[in-house]
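User: Hi! I'm working on a homework problem where we have to compare a predicted structure to a textbook description. Could you give me the structure for the chain below?
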Amino acid sequence: MFQAVEGSTHEGRYLHWDDLRYRKPPEGLTHEEWWLGLKMYRRSGCRTIPLKDAGGNKFRFTVPDLVTDLLHQIDRGGGTLIDIPEQITNAEQRDRYVVRSLMEEAITSSQLEGAATTREVAKKMLAEGRKPRDRSERMIVNNYVTMRRILDLKDKPLTPDMVFRVHREISQDAPDIPDGAGRLRRADEEINVSDIEGTVFHTPPPAAELPARLEAMCAFANEKTPGTFVHPVIRGIILHFWLAYDHPFVDGNGRTARALFYWQMLHSGYWLFEYISISQFLRKAPAQYGTAFLHAETDEGDLTYFIIHQAEVIRRALKELHGYVARKASETRACLNALEKHPELNHRQQALIAHAVRHPGFAYSIAGHGARHAVTYATARSDLLNLAKMKFLEHRKAGRAFVFVSPKDLALRLRAKHS
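Assistant: Happy to help. Predicted structure tokens:
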């Protein structure tokens, strides 16, 4: 009867009942029989993990062909194989790419959790090192600091103390509960995940279970469980889901979950993840993010829905990175002819000039230049003063501070210096 069901997917999609019931079933099958046939295929190839639902049942996942294909694309684009953008392996440009990605992730991850500020304002704040003015900006600064910290923690095993440290930095001076940073929620703080109308989508485990569940999550992250091979990308995605499912904190669970995903990927050797932001894609389609989570929870703990969604997001993020690098390489080549005769300019000054040529009238601050390149105030000041001395920037006063403005005829000035 189920011969018409040939695998766990349909037309390349891993369908949930909510979607399948509106599609035409294979010839001779009812929707219920079709669903049963798909479920039989999925169960035959499923693998369980230690994460348990409210009824004590273990979550599970399968690896259909579409997941295998996504994992292959991620492996090729994520830094584990040799097809790596030369511009990123260039040490002189590395810091700029890292700072860009950390800023993007800090901003969009915080916006997913309700930070109400524009990308432009937030990026300017981070670039200039300005102190946050409100809770939304504090969330973004905290997330930026935390993402930088993840780069330092990537070689360490995950422990409950590390999770608390990450959450404390994410929540510093910005939690809904003033003393909620860096600790598990208490029994009197039971929470639900709901929409603005009060519809409950997820009820996390009770607080009494959280210490043991956190230990189990760390054991999974450190590859001590389940005792069989789990692809590192799948392990990272599941770690993301696990913390979001347990919701162990009163606030900041989503940002912490995404930070731990980055830790897992970097810990597993996917070093190119220093340069990508997944939250910018999650923010573009937050409903799909939530639906993938709910499908996993409502279909007997089948994590495949969430794995597919997140793997697609990762693939898009890597594609965006490679596209960005290609664009920057092209723009850089256009400036090389003008800059190659100026060996006295360091790589930071060359990067600024390359940007300034494309943005006449742009005002650069010492603090902003220092933040972009992770150098001291004195070094940044020296960079800009020397460029102003060479007439490549115009030194002006803006209020009490000095700024360095890109002249409209900068390209002509560069060429004039050649002759």
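For your comparison, note the following. The domain at 51-323 is CATH 1.10.3290.10 (Fic-like fold). Residues 304-339 form the longest helix (36 residues). Good luck with the assignment!
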